[in-house]
Amino acid sequence: MEYPVEIIGNILSRLGAAIDVVVASLTSRKWLEARRNHLHTLTFNSNDWPVYDELPRSRLERYLAPVDYNVNTPNLNILEKCGRQSLELLDLAENTITGFGPSYQKFPCLRSLSLNHVDISTLDLSHLLSACPKVEVLNLVDMDFATSGPEFSMTLSSNSLKDIHVEAIELSEVILEADRLKNLHLKDCNIGNFALLSNGTLRIFELDNVDIFPLDIGENNAENLEIVEVSNFTTFRSDFHHMIVKLSKVRRISLCFVMFEDNDDEFVHTEATSACFPHLSRLSLTDELREELQRGLLGYRQLENLVVLELGWKVISDSFSDWVVELLKRCPKLRKLVIFWGCLGCQHT
Predict the structure, then answer these.
(1) What is the mean pLDDT of the chain?
(2) Where in this chain does the record put each F-box/LRR-repeat protein 15/At3g58940/PEG3-like LRR domain (predicted)?
(3) pLDDT-derived band of residue 73, with 50, 70 and 90 as boundaries?
(4) Residue 254: strand, helix, or coil
């Protein structure tokens, strides 16, 4: 059966790895044409074929006709080669980016940008993001930032960004300006000060093993959040209560091993707090929050629409049993109760 070159291009794109694409394209002249003119995704990864590290740049550049690129080799300046092209996805790993100055729409079609263990200054990263006017997804994992002088802090600005995942970074300050951001996930980060500036579009907020003092996502964002998942998190009590009290539209809350480091005895107005969860249908908690619940973290009114309740424990005791009973009294429509050890349930909510 003869396939059009466009379909063959789609088949080759699903292979991804450049070495596999080259081998498959040797099937016939038609497949070779598809590789040259109709390829969408191509991956250069030294783990797939160590010879990549030994090839001259000119050999690698011959393959750069596709739309999406994944690069895990230091031999190629992918930003210089692919700029101003129809690049839609860029995934860089184990790479170095230097001297990326201000550039207006250098990547006009880029939708997704992922940097994993990339050596780049915070200023160059800011310029890179500004050069992508249509980028919607940003992943930053284990970045090697220049951490001296004023670049110890970072400001990122984007009018198109909708989803950001930040993992394993350490900075004194991060300011994120993203008017359309819907999903924010911070994991294994140590950030002195974090501030999100947006127009209240945030819907999903996830924190996992993060230290941030203080944390500011903006009142307008908290009011529109639908999913909040926080685990292994330490912060100021007053800051956390201030965010919780604003969750008027939240549908799912997961709080696992949340600790408070200050001695602030300020109470949130319980009537205002309990009125903030009319849409809450799923709740996951670990037992170290018992005291905070008694202080009005989730108020004292009925959780009228809660249907799934997950409770984690380290040691079964009479106090834990009493806590479960008190929570059950507040959930008249509960359909499912899960009691789990540690934080396992919260990690899979």
Answers:
(1) 77
(2) 85-188
(3) very low
(4) strand
